Amino acid sequence: MRPENPNPPENAISTYSTSPRRVRKRPLLREASITWLLFGCALVSVLTTVGIVVMLAVQAAGFFRQVSVLEFLTGIQWTPLFDPQHFGVLPLVGGTLLTAGIAILVALPVGLASAIYLSEYARDSVRRVLKPMLEILAGVPTVVYGYFALTFVTPLLRSVFPNMIVFNALSAGLVMGIMIIPMVSSLSEDAMVAVPRSLRNAAYGLGATRFEVATRVVMPAAVSGIVAACILALSRAVGETMIVAIAAGSTPNLTLNPLESIQTMTAYIVQISLGETPHGTLEYYTIFAVGLLLFIMTLLMNLFGQWFVRRYREKY
Amino acid sequence: MRNGFPFKRRLKVRQVKGGVFRTMFLAATLVGTFVLIVLIVDVLRDGAGWLDWQFLTSYPSRRPEEAGLLSALFGTLWVMAFTALLSFPVGIGTAIYLEEYAPDNRLRRLIQTNINNLAGVPSIVYGLLGLSLFVQALALGRSVLAGAMTLTLMSLPVIIIAAQEAIRSVPESHRLGAFALGATRWQVVRNIVLPSALPGVLTGTILAMSRAIGEAAPMIAISALVYLTFIPTNPMDRFTVLPIQIFNWVSRPQEDFQHLAAAGIIVLLIVLLGMNAAAIILRNRYQQRTEE
Fold this sequence. Notes:
The complex is a heterodimer of chains A (316) and B (292).
Chain A: H1 20-23, H2 25-64, H3 69-74, H4 90-121, H5 124-139, H6 142-160, H7 169-193, H8 197-205, H9 210-221, H10 223-239, H11 242-247, H12 265-274, H13 282-312
Helix pairs in contact in A: 2-13, 4-7, 4-10, 5-7, 6-7, 7-10, 8-9, 10-13, 12-13
Chain B: H1 4-47, H2 53-56, H3 70-101, H4 106-118, H5 123-137, H6 144-168, H7 172-180, H8 185-214, H9 217-222, H10 242-250, H11 255-291
Helix pairs in contact in B: 1-11, 3-6, 3-8, 3-10, 5-6, 6-8, 7-8, 8-11, 10-11
């Protein structure tokens, strides 16, 4: 078609063949290699998951060769750094659930109420101011929250509970609750906004007040999204590290008393990492056993949360 | 319906209840803002007095009045640069593959589900992955590169999801127009999809980066060291980052180190604020363009 072009474009093969089939070959080759390159990118995330599972399993195997799974999962003493060593993970799990539970107790009512306000009450102009505030709250680094918990919230709480220990579950849990408010709020709000206008209008037509519409029509219709928001936020709280490492203490302690010092699974991993424990020792392997349990717990919660949304979503 | 009087009284009660709860809902929405203000005031009050040129240009020290965060600041910049360099191409590549190339089959759904789940993996688990994969198995040591690769894996799901949304918002008609003119798939992606999706992708990447540099947990697993009295000069050097330095200062009982931590937090927040402002400016320009 352009036989006299002295500088043929890169893709047009003119030197040894002019058949259209050959002319199209090089671009096709390039297309195919780009497809494979992009597929390679997508493979990175699959390999990340494989890497996490294999790495945790292999390293934790080093631990479970010396400590039985049963002792690990049912023991109520966690003293890997002292004699006599005990490897019962329940105190760490208890500490994790205690702080995460406190966090949910804070974040659920506050997050839900703010979701209701943002989706049912607030005008657009108000939303445009309030939503970015919540986004900023979600973007504050966790080490900053940890500092806030230790140097501001704890002294404040100690003026109420004078015999409270400096490092305690309550302060860390409360601040963690503040941290996950944006998550509960935005996920619940998404679910509420998805409830069709017609349902609200029907209730208004029957004479319901705005509050009644919000709590008896919108919330029940959005319940699957709200439950999922809670589960996902709980999973986030369980995996949260810096707040508890700074403010909750490093005393593995199976207790329900939030005024006591505890240690979470994540804080234990941080403690051992800081100590530069020699590679290959039993103490070193404990962090992978704890990490494996943490990974399984959060993965189950995330999968359950996603499944719950799919299973119970009302179709409109 | 016996008579109008009880209904009116009940209506009054319902309206008052509605009003009370409206105020409570608003109050709940403001809780976050209130805490944010208290937090910022608290940090400023503790740390502003310690934030000076000497603090920014000194290495860590046992004596609080001589200590600074020079090595942590530069470590953060190094790690951030390499994380951006690694995560941006892979993230956008994955998003393009999933949105433009992958057939809607089991494999695509598997990759998608997998990415959603990776976004929920605790950051400390990424730290453990980085420790055993990059630091030990690949023998990169506790280096800038190992840290950046760990943060890359951690921030990839966030970047991919943001990039997918940006790519999805490019109208189908633009693609079809280009295909009709004989463009190949890659030509469509490069000349039609990417130019209009790029600001959205960049915004997502910047936000993911700002979350990544605030993360202390995975970095502690990779590089526990904080007494670094040199600035990394190549990617294989040891490093420390701002959140680790802050964590180290917070963990000390002496009051003066708490002030140092607060001053470090101010620096960290300023860095994050700058990145978020950049993301917001990008987003606004992008929105204007799509509305045209």
